[in-house]
Amino acid sequence: MASVAQEMTLIGLSDGELDTKRYQSSYLTNKVGGQPDWLPGISPLPPRCSRCSAPLAHVVQVYCPLEASPYHRNLHLFACLAAECSGRSECWTVLRSQRLETEVAAAQTSTRHIPTQDAPLLATDWCDTADDWGEDGDGGWEGGVKEEIQVQEEVAAPEAEVSEMVVSSHLHDLSLIGSQDIPIFRPYFISVVEEADLFGEEEDLDHAQQLLREYERREGVAVGELEGSGGGGEEKYEKTRAKHGDAVFSRFMKKISLCPQQILRYCHSGRPLFISEPPSNMAQLVSACGYCGGSRTFELQLMPALVSLLQRKDYGEKVELEFGTVLVYTCTNSCWKSSSDSAVEEFCFVQTDPDQQLFK
Length: 360
What we know:
single chain; alpha+beta
C-alpha cells in the first residue's frame, strides 16, 4: 500500500453477519462485536467502565500490523452500555496487543492442527503490510473479492493452525462472561476499501452529489463540491453556518457523503475527521503513552453508521450506546515488551453526534 506519509485512508464496511456456528474467527479477523479474539499468549482481564465499574462490551476488533514491523498487532475497542455512560470518553477502552511473528509461528507449530471451515473472504490489512499478505506489488487495492481472495489464501492456513488455541480462549472467555454478565454484540465481518477508490465510479459519484445537495437544502448550508470530483481535489468548503450552527459537522457530512454507510476510518498517523469542533487543547488531552512515555498518534475512528449494527446477541434489552465518532490514538512507537501477556491501553476520545437522526 501507499506510505503513511500519503495519509491513505481505508474505509471499513459491514460485510455480513459472522455466523459462529459456521465460521471460526481469529485475531486475523476484522469484525464488529462478538467476543475478542486475542493473539496467542495474550490474556487480559475483561475491561470495566472507569465510571460505573460495569463490564464493557466488545465493539470492534481490528488486525492492523505496521509497516516493516515484526509484530502481529490488534486493536480492540470496548464500551459501557449504561445509558448514563453513553458518549463519555472515560467509558470506552481501547486495548492494543502484539506478538512477534516468530512467537506466533512457534505457537502454531506446537499445537495440534484441527481442520476448520475457512471464514468468508476478508481483507485484513489496514496499514502498509499488504505486500506481506498477498497484495499486488504495485501497492494498489482494487476493492472487491479478488484481492480478498489473495489475503485469505495467506491467512487461512495460520488461522486454522491456531484454532485450538482460539477455542480454548473462547471457553475461557465464556466462563468469564457467565460470571460477570458481559454484554455481547452480534458479530459482523468488516471489509476494507481505499477511500480514494470510492471516487472511481462516475455513477456513484453522481449519487453522492445528489445526497450532498439534499443535505444542503435540508440544513441550509453550502459545502461545495465533493473532494475528488474535479478541480484537483481542492477544498471548496464555504463557511456558511448550518441550521444546527456547526460548520465542522457540515464538513464531516461532506467528507463521508460518498459512502455514508462506512463504519470505520483508518489512517495511521493521519488526520482525524472531527464531527464537531474539538477542544482547543486537544493536543494536550491526548495523553502520552502510559508505558513508554512517548507521544501518541491518531490511528482510527468509529463512525455513526456503526451504531445501528450494535445489537445485543441475545436480543435482550435495547442498546443505549450512541456516539458521533470515537477517535483512537495509539503509541507512536507502538511500544511492546515481548515478554508481556497483557494488552496495552491506548487513548479514546468520544464526540457525540449533533444530528444523530440523520444516521437512523
